[in-house]
Design a protein that fits this description.
The structure is a single chain. The chain is mainly alpha-helical. The protein contains 6 helices and no strands. Helix 1 packs antiparallel against helix 2, helix 1 packs parallel to helix 3 and helix 3 packs parallel to helix 5. The longest helix has 45 residues. The protein is elongated and about 75 Å long.
Length: 149
C-alpha cells in the first residue's frame, strides 16, 4: 500500500516537473524570437541613419516582454543597451550593459559599457571598461575611441 502511494506521488511530481519544463522551454523560445526580431530590426535600421525612434520603441517593448521569459539570456540586456545607445541615452544604456555583465562577463559587454560611459562623459570609468574589454579580447582595441585606453 505504501509503495503504491509513493509511486503515485512520484508520478505526479514527475508530471509536474515535465509540465514546468515545457512551459519554461516555451517561454525561452518566445524570448528568443522576440530578441531575434529586435536584433533584425536594429540591423536594418542602423543602415537608415538616423535610426527611427518608433522602431527603437518597438524593440524596447519586445525586449521588455522577453526579459521575464528568459531572465538569464544575456542577449536581452545587451540588445536593450544597444537601443538606448542608438538613442544617445547613455544612462539607461549603462544600466543595461551592467545588467548584461552581471549575467556574464563578456568582452563586448565591457566595450559597449565603455562606449556608453564615454558618451556620458564619464571618461575614467569608460577607460577602465575599455581596458577590461581589451584584456578579455585584444582584437577589440581597434574599436576603442582615441584616448580610450
Amino acid at each position: 500500500m505504501k509503495g503504491k502511494w509513493l509511486a503515485a506521488v512520484l508520478t505526479l511530481l514527475l508530471a509536474a516537473a515535465t509540465v514546468g519544463q515545457a512551459v519554461r522551454w516555451s517561454h525561452r523560445r518566445t524570448a528568443s524570437r522576440l530578441l531575434a526580431e529586435s536584433e533584425a530590426r536594429t540591423l536594418s535600421a542602423v543602415r537608415m541613419r538616423p535610426v527611427p525612434a518608433d522602431l527603437i520603441a518597438t524593440n524596447l517593448e519586445a525586449l521588455r516582454q522577453a526579459a521575464p521569459l528568459d531572465p538569464v539570456e544575456v542577449g536581452i540586456p545587451i540588445a536593450r543597451g544597444t537601443q538606448y545607445f542608438l538613442l544617445s541615452r547613455p544612462e539607461p544604456a549603462i544600466a543595461a550593459y551592467r545588467d548584461s555583465l552581471a549575467l556574464e562577463s563578456r568582452s563586448e559587454g565591457y566595450l559597449n559599457l565603455g562606449r556608453s560611459l564615454w558618451l556620458a562623459g564619464r571618461f575614467d570609468e569608460a577607460r577602465e571598461s575599455f581596458r577590461r574589454a581589451v584584456r578579455l579580447d585584444p582584437h577589440l582595441a581597434r574599436l576603442v575611441p582615441p584616448g580610450g585606453l
